[in-house]
């Protein structure tokens, strides 16, 4: 039993922050059951030594190391899933729908409605390429590459994981680039028109034009945005393996 609990620490920490598994719509009972099932799978796949002393400093440090590795595995994927929210902020502000918010089914927080749509789309793409199974496979392989008791991540690895946070902003801006560039061009045109014809009502012309152009641009650019979301997911999975497992 103590071996199973010790094994579930890494798996549970990964599921606590990883996309899909950390969603508020997933009941805690389901998460604990999945964690226990994968923990039993790990115990059958490779030998995991049980702690010699439960209430000891070495056991506490080993448990902290297990939790740290699990959090790192899930956190990198969560960083990539922030890219659609960054893109929605850029596009929604330019379109004039930045005030439209809805409850995010993943986090339960209020986020832009366009961000919810892109997040759900990215989640479906993540499931379509079996990203959740790849995450479970990475967790299983982590017990071979980072065995319990020797799983401390160095300062360099933690720094690289923190620096990977900049990838969310880069991916979000690139995701919003096709639509954002078109909306920027329309805003420039409307600005020049307002300067050449001061009597022209900027809000009566600019906001409907930006909204219409944004909707059409999203419809046209959605296939390319979906392809880039797949690239972001694959980059995040590769980064998870490289930054954590080496």
From TrEMBL:
Keywords: Bacterial flagellum, Cell membrane, Cell projection, Cilium, Flagellum, Membrane, Transmembrane, Transmembrane helix. PANTHER family: FLAGELLAR BIOSYNTHETIC PROTEIN FLIR. It comes from Sphingomonas baiyangensis. It is found in: Cell membrane; Bacterial flagellum basal body. GO terms for cellular component: bacterial-type flagellum basal body; plasma membrane. The lineage of its organism: Bacteria, Pseudomonadati, Pseudomonadota, Alphaproteobacteria, Sphingomonadales. The gene is fliR. The keyword Cell membrane applies. This is Flagellar biosynthetic protein FliR. The chain crosses the membrane at residues 55-81, 117-140, 161-190, 202-224. Belongs to the FliR/MopE/SpaR family.
């Amino acid at each position: 039993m103590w071996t199973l609990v010790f094994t579930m620490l890494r798996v549970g920490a990964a599921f606590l922050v990883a996309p899909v598994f950390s969603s508020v719509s997933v009941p805690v009972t389901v998460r604990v059951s999945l964690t226990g099932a994968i923990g039993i799978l790990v115990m059958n796949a490779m030998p995991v030594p049980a702690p010699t002393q439960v209430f000891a400093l070495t056991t506490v440090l080993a448990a902290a190391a297990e939790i740290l590795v699990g959090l790192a595995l899930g956190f990198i994927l969560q960083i990539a899933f922030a890219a659609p929210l960054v893109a929605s902020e850029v596009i929604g502000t330019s379109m004039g729908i930045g005030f439209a918010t809805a409850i995010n089914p993943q986090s339960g927080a209020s986020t832009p409605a366009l961000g919810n749509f892109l997040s759900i789309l990215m989640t479906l793409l993540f499931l379509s390429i079996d990203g959740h199974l790849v995450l479970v496979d990475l967790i299983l392989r982590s017990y071979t590459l980072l065995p319990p008791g020797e799983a401390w991540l160095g300062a360099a690895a933690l720094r690289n994981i923190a620096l990977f946070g900049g990838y969310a902003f880069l991916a979000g801006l690139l995701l919003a680039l096709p639509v954002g560039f078109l909306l920027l061009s329309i805003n420039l045109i409307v600005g020049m028109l307002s300067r050449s014809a001061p009597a022209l009502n900027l809000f009566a012309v600019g906001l409907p034009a930006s909204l219409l152009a944004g909707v059409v641009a999203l419809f046209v650019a959605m296939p390319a945005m979906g392809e880039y979301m797949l690239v972001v997911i694959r980059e995040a999975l590769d980064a998870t393996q490289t930054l954590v497992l080496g």
